[in-house]
Amino acid sequence: MKELDLLKRDWNKNNQSFEQLTDVDIYKMLHKKSSSIVKWILLISIAEFILLRGLDFVILFDDDYISKMKFIHLYNFEVILTAVNLVVLITFIFLFYKNFKYINAASSIKKLMKDIINTRKMVKYYVAYNLVLVAISTGIILFSEIRYNNQLMHFYDQHHVAMYVIAIGVIGFLSLLFWLFYKLLYGILLSRLQRNYKELKKIDL
Prior knowledge:
The protein is mainly α and about 200 residues long. It is built from 7 helices and no strands. Helix 2 (about 25-60) packs parallel to helix 5 (about 110-150). It is elongated, with a radius of gyration of 26 Å.
């Protein structure tokens, strides 16, 4: 009988501890988790920017690369594209920073949910921009290679259908490669944000 009384007492204590986990407590935990996720998105985008854009500059000032780009009449295009890309990516990083500040300062469930949605949209726009950039720039480079490289031009004259297939294959392969790269970088973080959003939605009912 004494064991039963002790068991009941422990059960009541556990029930009380579960009841203490209110919607406010859940919100605070989800708020903290969401803020941490968006912080990681910001840090990864900065690291990616430094690494890839640093590589752009190294390549852009390489003599062999300059000669190659000038040969296919794309050096000026490459310089302009790099400059525009820098401005666009810095803008995205700034927007990621703003999203982090907004989420960090969120004061209600609805506000946090809205900020999570905006962050997910912004990351998707960022990935879409990079994928479109890869596809377009690869297509332009391939077109110029065919136009100014005599061997490729000769092959194109004889097998233009095959050349189109190869070009589309290269563009598709590089686009897929970059999509997998961004899926690995941001996909897990976005999934976690989505889970947080669903949990917030439950306590907002």
